[in-house]
Amino acid sequence: MWGTHAFSPLLNSITSALHSKNTFQSHSFVRCRGHNMKGILGLLVCAAALLTGQSTAAGQDTLQVTTILNEPYTMTKGSGLEGYCVDLMSTLAKKLGLKYQMRLVKDGRYGKLDATGYWNGMVGEVVRGEADLAVADLTLTAGREAALELTKPFIQTGLSFIMRRDLLDPQTGYSDLLSPFSTHVWVGILVSYLLTSLCLYLVTRISPQEWAGPQVEESSFSLSHSFWYIAGALTLQGAGPHPKSVSGRIISAIWWLFSIVLLATYFSRVSAWLKSDQSHVSIQSFEDLARQDLIDFGTVDGGSSLAFFKTSQNPVYRSIYAHMERRKSLVTSMEEGIRRVREGNFAFIGEAVSLDLAAVRYCDLVRCPQVVGMRSYGIAAPMGSPLVKNLSMAILQLSESGELDYLRSKWWASACMAPGDQGSPLSPATLKGLFLLLALGLGAGFIMALLELLAKARTHAKDHKKSCCSVLSSELSQRLSGNAERSAEEPLEKNKA
What we know:
The protein has 497 residues and is of the alpha/beta class. It contains 18 helices and twelve strands. The strands form four sheets. Strands 7, 8, 9, 10 and 11 form a five-stranded mixed sheet that branches. Strand 2 and strand 3 form a beta hairpin. The longest helix is centred in the middle third of the chain and has 33 residues. The relative contact order is 0.13. The N terminus and C terminus are likely disordered.
């Protein structure tokens, strides 16, 4: 950036010294020639010193760095800037000892060559000398490589598209009817079924209101019948005979309530899934996107993504470009594209690394798994800039040391920060109140059965003047074993009768 007018006096002095030998006389030629050569050498040394000093001063000049707003690469923070590219430039400047000033591009564009050969955006500012560097998510393309010097890439990515999750048809399978509940919930339901059946079997054998005893009658509630009765209640179908005791009815009522709430929750989620499935469009690739007409799609106008589809010889990609031109669905920025995606039937095409950030910050969005047109981001400098080699070496060193990975983890969210996905299976924590209610009901029924048996044991002990504990123990042993001998008092009473 330094002009040649500063060196004009030096050049004139050197020229005069070179031609001064013609004015000397011949008899003093040798001595004069020696003096002239010393003068020339002195002038050359002074010129070299000035050039070195000015080169040092030029190296300490403040570099003008242009960038563009695009989260998380560059964002505004008060009167300043922050983001991945801001931290990257700061790290490179410290590593290379550079002074710089970062500002936003004037027209808010990346850079596109028009029909007159004029570059706009950040590329244009660097080409015209308005900026020394362009540090942003600037894609390396052949056209930009011809007009600029580009460093080694600091991010590798490709093209994909993002859309609303409720518009994307998920891969269906045979296990979709189990998807409303998580695996832990299904295991909990199975355990609850087995425990309730076993508890009902024990209660109907313990309660004297349900079963008089093994020597009096056969129990109507065998273990197999208990399992069948609970299964019938789970499907809202009766399977008699029904319990007659208070304890048995408590367990039955609690299980009925558990079944009704569980089935209502299951069918409501299945119904929502079936209704949403009617509005889904099966889109898993760019080919699927090009074949359908229900969802509009577009990309940033003037960006490298649009140029990829425009110059591609792939029929699918050319049809995508024709659709965007016909529908005028191009957007001015990525922010506008993400906003249109969240508002309605729109798919935004862009770099996968940027779409991943939007997908984890907005849980209602999902990125297509297909990635095409692999490309990378680099720093742009004017042609012949001596900074490119040093910047490329520094970028490679940052990559090898893991510094680039650290910057990536800092500015890319690692998890979705939005409320939980409504389409995810219900977890046990969601239904813990229902399972707790069932457990309390089973405990209440079992305690009630013991109280009923205790009341009978006290009456029997009072009539026969026996210990209540011994009678209760005998009753429990007979009812749980089912084949114990009757006590001596019962045959005597039967003979008297």
